[in-house]
Structures are given as C-alpha cells and as structure tokens.
Amino acid sequence: MYLKDAETPPDRPHAFAYFLTIHNDSEQVVSIKGRKWVITNDEGRKTVVEGDGVVGEFPCLRPGQHFSYNSYHLNDTNTCHATGAYLGMTESGKRVIARIPRFEMRVPGTGSASADAE
Length: 118
Description:
The protein has 118 residues and is mainly β. The chain has a single domain, classed as ApaG domain (Immunoglobulin-like, Sandwich). It has 1 helix and 7 strands, in the order E-E-E-E-E-E-E-H. Strands 2, 3, 4, 6 and 7 form a 5-stranded antiparallel sheet that branches. Strand 6 and strand 7 form a beta hairpin. The radius of gyration is 16 Å and the shape is elongated. 14% of the residues are buried.
C-alpha cells in the first residue's frame, strides 16, 4: 500500500506499507528467529535487509497458529519488489526456512494501466 502522505527523507520519498501473516502448517512448534529481505528497485539496485526476529518480536507458533504484522519500506524509485524468507527453528532444533513470495510496491499512476486496475 502506497503511503502518499507519509513523511519521508528526500533521498527515499516513497513509503509503502505491507501486511504479512506467518502460518505454522507443520506439526511442530516453530520459533521465528529472523528474517531476510531482498528489495530491488526499478533500476535494478538491490538492498538486503537481515535481522533478528520480526518487528522486534520472536514469535513462537504452535501447530495451526499464525502471527500477523505490518511494516513499511522507503524507496527512491516509483517501483520496487521484495522477496525474502523467515528463518525459524523447531523445538527439536531443526532449522526452518519459509520463503516470502515476491510482491511489488508501486506508486499509483506509474507503470502500466492494467497494473493500476489490480
């Protein structure tokens, strides 16, 4: 979601919010230990963001549970896309990687007309 009226620094004038939910569809308890994002702007420039936890938390999800959150990204071009992964661990110590599918962040009115209709 484009945040048209957000206060942003001059070098990254476009703010985008996104909303995600992590589902534990396994039969084991999984603790989310970290995340990694790769954000690519429309000029091909990549930014890698890695860190512990998710929005300052370390959710521990029992089977069938989920964790929802929202965050934001500041960008210097009209369009960018993000992909990534959550890094977790089961109670038995097995590493878990959950891929985050690619999603696009685009200033409305830029790009193709069909994209604006979505």
